[in-house]
Amino acid sequence: MVERTLRAQQPQVTAHIAKIRRKDPDAxxxxxxxxxxxxxxxxxxxxxxxxxxxxxxxxxxxAVSLATATAEAVAALDAAxxxxxxxxxxxxxxxxxVERRRALILGVVVGAGGTELMRKVTGGKDRWARTVTxxxxxxxxxxxxxxxxxWFVKRYVTRQLALAVGRALPFGLGVIIGGVxxxxxxxxxxxxxxxxxxxxxxxxxxxxxxxxAPGA
Length: 216
Hints:
The structure is a single chain. The chain is mainly alpha-helical. It contains 10 helices and no strands. The longest helix is centred in the C-terminal third of the chain and has 30 residues, at 138-167.
C-alpha cells in the first residue's frame, strides 16, 4: 500500500500545490499548509462518514461496510501520503530518493512513535525531515525503514480494523465513528508533520529571489 501510494501520489504533489496557489496567489506558505490541513481532514472525514453511511441500509449495510474497509483504508493512506508530500513541497524538502522518501512518509504516518524514532536517529532533533532527506547516511535508513514498516503494519492496520468495525455499526452510529475516527487519525499525522518539518518558511523561494535582486 505504501509503495503503490508513493508512486501514485508523487507526480501529483507539485500540481496540487500549484492549484492551491492559483486560487489564492497571495497565500503564504503557512496559509497553504493550513489549507492542506483542512482539506486532508475533510477528505478523511468524508471517507469515514461514507463508509459508516453504508451501514444504515438495513440488512445489507453492515456487511457491505465491512467489505469496503480495505478500499477505505487505502484511500485514507493515499490522503496521508499526499498531505505529507505536499507539506514537504511547501518546505522545499527533497524527496527524490526512494529510501529517504519512504522514511519520511512512514515516520510521519506512524505518528508519535515514528516521531520519537526519527528524533533518536537524527540526534534528538524535532525538525528531522530535512536531516533524513538530505544528510542522514543511507546505510542507516534500511534498519530504520524496517522498524517503521513493522510499526506501520501493526498500528495502522490495527487502527483501520477498529475503525472498520465502528463504521459498520447501524443506526447512523457508523457515520459518526467513521468520520470522527478518521479526523482523529489525521490530526495525529498533522502533528507528526509539524514536528518533522517545523514552522513553514515565511516566504516562497521566488519571493526571496526577487527581494535579493538589485533594485528590489
